[in-house]
């Protein structure tokens, strides 16, 4: 079950145009080929160089700056050595920031929406101090905590994608399993590295609204199925809900609630549980003794402690019932103390 949604920054959230920076550096006399090299996941000197975007990786001072192994001053001096004599620090920084475009407003809202639905939202980015300071202030209003639960920045971690160590470090800090994480990145090398460790992954096309696809992935992940074989104890004539030897509606409802209860387990902290609050279902087809019945619960939304599920029940011939079920997350000790 996915609990953590982890976003790359450049090319996923902020529109990025690295060729634009390279053109600006070229205007200052620097050869872009000296600053970059073709993207590859192959490691040299123990690690692969930091990806900048799909198809580009950093080289030299640019690579070291992405992993925080040199200061902004050293980075500027390194770039100046490729430029025309007299190139200023301000010109280098302006050229470096030329690649940063905009973050569409709907993406900022989507980050907040995912958090209200109960997902932990994080940022995992190959970035650097100059870019991050600009983006944090310009696009997040200096309030990144309103959008992300945790920040994983290459220059602070002294690691960079696509190396496995940064993905392992993320899991350790989150205390999470790879299967509980969905990672979005525009670089194939980064996606491949995360997937090799067991992450759920999505490669984002550039300048693309990916919300529908991500919602579908999360919806699929937040589904649980409970199954029983109809026995004598499940018949309407034996539970008092009817006088025929068919699968009882209260038993179908109980199976639906069981699926929803188990679906919610991955959202709970120690000492928490869920209780059913409301269910509205139709029972449209009878099921005979000895037949198998499955109930599916899919989490539709989370509003604080309120969880809303779509529930369906099927037997061997098809749909027998469906509806909506609401559960609330509670603290078990406090809940039982009310009795």
Summarize the helix and strand pattern as letters: EHHEEEHHHHEHEHHEHEHEHHEEEEH
**Which stretches are low in confidence, meaning pLDDT under 50 for 5 or more residues running?**
38-44
Describe the main β-sheet briefly.
Answer: 5 strands, parallel
Quaternary form: single chain
* General form: elongated
Tell me the CATH topology of the largest domain: Rossmann fold
Write down how many β-strands occur, each being a DSSP E stretch of 2 or more residues: 13
Q: For the terminal residues, how far apart are their CA atoms?
A: 32 Å
Q: Please tally the helical runs, counting DSSP H or I stretches of 4 or more residues.
A: 14
* Percentage of residues assigned to helices: 25-40%
Provide the number of structural domains: 3
What integer is the average pLDDT? 90
Q: What topology, given as strand order, has the largest sheet?
A: 6-5-1-7-8
Assign the CATH architecture of the largest domain: 3-Layer(aba) Sandwich
Radius of gyration: 26 Å
In the CATH scheme, the class of the largest domain would be Alpha Beta
The CATH homologous superfamily of the largest domain is called HAD superfamily/HAD-like
- The percent range for strand residues is 25-35%
Broad structural category: alpha/beta
Describe this structure in words.
The chain is of the alpha/beta class and 339 residues long. It folds into 3 domains: 127 residues, Rossmann fold; 80 residues, no CATH class; 115 residues, Thiol Ester Dehydrase, Chain A (Roll). 36% of the residues lie in helices and 26% in strands. The chain has a 5-stranded parallel sheet. The relative contact order is 0.12.
